[in-house]
Write a structure and sequence with these properties.
One of its GO terms (molecular function) is DNA binding. The protein is α/β, with parallel strands linked by helices. It contains 14 helices and seven strands. It folds into three domains: 84 residues, Conserved hypothetical protein from pyrococcus furiosus pfu- 392566-001, ParB domain, CATH 3.90.1530; 109 residues, Arc Repressor Mutant, subunit A (Orthogonal Bundle); 49 residues, no CATH class.
Length: 297
């Protein structure tokens, strides 16, 4: 049994197809059945909160004319109760409802709750059209419900540990800022820059300003630095223009650590300088130390 679980975990790390080969095709032991739409419910672990209504209407129009060609995949939590939960195919389910259909072709598959959750996340992540906030909530849900660490989520989903950490940090933003991200008005890069703001009371107003004035990430970084007092330096201090190499290095480090890393070269010795990695809290410092593989315990 332990060997089977180990194999499943490896498969999950390679994607949905590795765990359920031809996920929308019946196996030799399965068949396609017509289920009443009223007996089917959405996947409770579905990370997607927004569905493109125009695309759904287009799919509904196709279903009205030709029906559903590809069956959805469902599971039956209780064999004594005629109720089903969607594993894959929620768009087809929603479009069928729009098309005023009463039934939909489906494959009933025996899937555990853990597998169902991971398949829902993987299926959506592979489509790459989740909002950053939905993606962050998907990772958070996996960690909480399956009691996984960031490192374990990273391994299972084939994402880097810093990548997962960067998204999870978005969940600490105020509700108003999260709403701007969810609407697609605030980009991931802008949100990550806002996370380095020390005065959290200024977070939401600055986020709204970024949207209103269409601020670039670089402009936002300069404003955040000024708010944090980092820009309050003596005017007579010599400013060293950063080379493309230094700027590219900063961007790589920012991607790795999920915070506004700064590289400052010495004015009189261009081959020397310092790297500054700000942190927002003790937890954030621990996160950075983990990335550096430093364990103080």
């Amino acid at each position: 049994m332990a060997s089977k679980d180990k194999d499943q975990n490896k498969a999950l790390g390679r994607g949905i197809g590795a765990l359920f080969a031809d996920v929308d095709e019946p196996t030799s032991e399965e068949s396609v059945v017509d289920l009443a739409l009223t007996d089917i419910h959405a996947n409770p672990y579905q990370p997607r909160q927004k569905f493109d209504q125009a695309a759904l209407k287009e799919l509904a129009s196709s279903i009205e004319k030709s029906g559903v060609f590809q069956p959805i995949i469902v599971r039956q939590p209780d064999v004594e109760v005629k109720k089903y939960e969607i594993i894959a195919g929620e768009r087809r389910f929603r479009a069928s409802k729009l098309a005023k259909q009463t039934t939909i072709p489906a494959i009933v598959r025996d899937v555990t709750e853990e597998q169902m959750m991971e398949v829902a996340v993987l299926e959506n992540l592979q489509r790459e059209d989740l909002t950053p906030l939905e993606e962050a909530e998907a990772y958070d849900s996996l960690m909480k419900k399956l009691k996984l660490t960031q490192a374990e989520v990273s391994k299972r989903l084939g994402k880097s540990r810093p990548y997962i950490a960067n998204y999870l940090r978005l969940l600490g933003l105020p509700a108003g800022v999260k709403q701007l991200i969810q609407k697609g008005q605030l980009a991931m890069g802008q949100a990550r820059t806002l996370l380095s703001l020390k005065d959290k009371a200024k977070l939401e107003p600055l986020a709204k300003r970024a949207v209103k004035d269409n601020l670039t990430v670089r402009q936002l970084e300069q404003i955040v630095a000024r708010y944090n007092g980092d820009a309050e330096k003596p005017a007579k201090k010599v400013t060293v223009k950063k080379s493309p190499y230094i700027r590219a290095s900063e961007e790589q480090l920012q991607e790795k650590f999920g915070t506004a890393v700064s590289i400052q070269a010495k004015a009189n010795k261009k081959d020397q300088g310092k790297i500054e990695i700000p942190y927002l809290s003790n937890d954030d410092l621990t996160r950075i130390l983990e990335i550096l593989h430093i364990d103080l315990n």
